[in-house]
Amino acid sequence: MRAGHQGTGPGPITPDGCAVELYSRLSLGAEPDIIAAAVPPGASILELGCGVGRMTHPLLERGFTVTAVDESAEMLERVRGARTVHASIEDLDLGETFDVVLLASFLVHTADIEVRRGMLRTCTRHLADGGRVLIQREGADYHTNLPRERVDPSGYIVRIASSELVADGVNSVFAEYVFPDATWTQTFRVRPLTRQQFEDALAEAGLRVDKYLTEDGIWVRAAATVAEAPATQEED
After folding, report:
1. End-to-end alpha carbon distance in the chain
2. pLDDT (tens digit, 9 = 90+) per residue, 95-131?
3. Can you give the CATH number for the domain in which 218 is found?
4. Domain, as residue range, for 214
């Protein structure tokens, strides 16, 4: 188990504390529609951290070609219809590029700065000319007004019970997922980022914000930074 991460509940638990069976049950909101509206129809998508395919399957249904990457073999076993790659995101080098690189699930907020840098470099490395990176960030109030919970229309409860500072710039978050027949918990560490810190992290990886796709700033479309052409000296 990754340091500072753990999970409880039925079934396999991944190194970052995610329960495979839990993620197979969680519903999905407007995310596939947000993505589909922000990229060309039929685009090739590299999905980093696909999990059980909650995002993968709706994107396939919308006509996209998806290469789904995850470090958990148990998660990848649930993915259907996509090419799958078992690998860690920060070390990935497929030797090919894609129209769209997707980094969702707040992965950009990983507590380890070097892992975040590796993830964003992976995004840049696999981006085709003119392509875009779609990133999901935490909302501005993610770590405040806790505990809070919501009841999903299907009947289960998601509760963010606490978020406590445990190191310089790093919070430990405790979440509970309560279903009628089972309960899962997850403890994980994240690094909250201001908008400026987020944009600075992108710049370090050779990326820039192209557009904030949602009013809350959670979904972002980024592009490769265009290097300025060297100035030419005029002849006398």
Report:
1. 67
2. 999 999 999 999 999 999 999 999 999 999 999 999 9
3. 3.40.50.150
4. 23-140+193-224
